[in-house]
């Protein structure tokens, strides 16, 4: 079995300390794979005078050249043929550009094993029929938006008795109908089946705030969950404190903080980060996080604020081993009340359009190379 295969078969999903050596070996293996199959990526590494043989310890991971998501929104680097990409997804493109990422069979198999273990750990699987409320897009043929596919995939954690979407396709465009969602919640309150909502934190917050202003409050059946994913995107200016958010979900839906679950990830880094009962994003064995200085891209230690660099050897179809996001975050090592010993990532914000960073400069340099 390959090093990457062994990593994605690791039984303890948050044993980062125990899997460090294997993770580094899997990353080196993944980089060699892409060097052999993607000339453009090989040129980038050669320009940086980097060799995968330099990867010996976890500290060496910071030496691997990063690919900014800004660059990936304008360029496609492929390590397999288009025909082998069984699934293609795009990012939300909040800045006007979208990343298009394709997954081959090997990658999809690794993703499946990861999701099963993470969902087991967080007790997300259920055999009880569930009603789903999606504050997002109703999937349709030909749609590649990653957020839509992820939300639809979420509805398989428990048998779907019904699905209702805030955005439905009509007359050649998606149309938002929060009234449909409100009516569904009022209806489901009277039933006995649990309800699971899924959507961007901002959209969920706007719905809850609107319901509160209208005096519309429901009490969802026992076992219901409020699930969030995708971050606040362009709505960071309206982001609310987590405690205030949890108070609102309990007031409007009757769902307490212990039944609010948030996910973090990216199309360019399809690793599932799921918050614990203390609402911390612990780093799973399948990925690693490096916080980098906004100006120099130098790696920073724990407790330091900087750009979030995400690493994983999961993807064999495209060289997305080390991706630099436009998220600003902090990596924590202090003990967590949940008992998990893996470091946890706090997302603080996003790089503003007026903030020129070294990451943007790196993207421009890469643009000239490929």
Structure explained in plain terms:
It is built from ten helices and 16 strands. The protein is of the alpha/beta class and 370 residues long. It has two domains: 3-80 and 280-369, ANL, N-terminal domain (Rossmann fold, 3-Layer(aba) Sandwich); 123-264, Rossmann fold (3-Layer(aba) Sandwich), CATH 3.40.50. Strands 1, 11, 12, 13, 14, 15 and 16 form a seven-stranded mixed sheet that branches. Helix 9 links the parallel strand 8 and strand 9. Helix 2 crosses helix 3 and helix 8 crosses helix 9. It is globular, with a radius of gyration of 21 Å.
Oligomer: single chain
Shape: globular
> Level of helix content?
25-40%
Tell me which CATH architecture of the largest domain applies here: 3-Layer(aba) Sandwich
CATH topology-level fold name of the largest domain: Rossmann fold
CATH C-level category of the largest domain:
Alpha Beta
* CATH superfamily grouping of the largest domain: ANL, N-terminal domain
Radius of gyration: 21 Å
- Helix count equals 10
Cα distance spanning the termini: 34 Å
Counting structural domains, the number is 2
What percent strand?
Answer: 15-25%
Largest sheet: 7 strands, mixed
Q: What is the chain-wise order of helices and strands? A: HHHEHEEHEHEEHEHEHEEEEEEEEH
Structural class comes to alpha/beta
């Amino acid at each position: 079995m390959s090093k990457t295969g062994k990593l994605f078969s690791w039984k303890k999903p948050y044993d980062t300390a125990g899997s460090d050596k294997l993770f580094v070996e899997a990353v080196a293996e993944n980089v060699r794979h892409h060097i052999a199959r993607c000339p453009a990526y090989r040129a980038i590494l050669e320009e940086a005078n980097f060799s995968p043989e330099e990867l010996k310890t976890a500290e060496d991971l910071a030496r691997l050249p990063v690919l900014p998501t800004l660059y990936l929104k304008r360029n496609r680097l492929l390590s397999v043929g288009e025909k082998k990409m069984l699934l293609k997804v795009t990012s939300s493109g909040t800045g006007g550009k979208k990343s298009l990422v394709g997954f081959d069979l090997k990658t999809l198999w690794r993703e499946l094993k990861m999701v099963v273990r993470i969902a087991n750990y967080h007790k997300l699987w259920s055999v009880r029929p569930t009603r789903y409320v999606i504050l997002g897009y109703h999937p349709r043929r030909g749609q590649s938006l990653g957020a839509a596919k992820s939300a639809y995939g979420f509805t398989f954690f428990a048998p779907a008795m019904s699905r209702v979407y805030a955005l439905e396709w009509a007359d050649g465009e998606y149309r938002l109908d929060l009234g449909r969602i409100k009516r569904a919640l009022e209806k489901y309150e009277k039933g006995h089946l649990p309800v699971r909502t899924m959507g961007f934190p901002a959209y969920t917050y706007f719905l809850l705030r609107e319901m509160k202003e209208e005096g519309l409050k429901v009490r969802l059946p026992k076992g219901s969950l409020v699930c969030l994913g995708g971050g606040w995107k362009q709505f960071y200016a309206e982001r609310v404190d987590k405690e205030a958010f949890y108070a609102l979900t309990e007031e409007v839906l009757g769902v307490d903080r212990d039944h609010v679950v948030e996910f973090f990830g990216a199309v360019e880094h399809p690793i599932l980060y799921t918050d614990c009962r203390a609402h911390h994003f612990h780093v799973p064995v399948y990925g690693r996080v490096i916080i980098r200085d906004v100006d120099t891209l130098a790696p920073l230690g724990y407790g330091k604020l900087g750009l979030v660099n995400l690493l994983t050897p999961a993807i064999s179809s495209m060289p997305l081993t080390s991706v630099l996001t436009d998220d600003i975050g902090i990596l924590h090592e202090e003990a967590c009340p949940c008992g998990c010993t893996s470091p946890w990532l706090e997302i603080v914000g996003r790089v503003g359009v007026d903030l020129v960073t070294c990451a943007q400069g790196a993207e421009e340099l890469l643009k000239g190379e490929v």
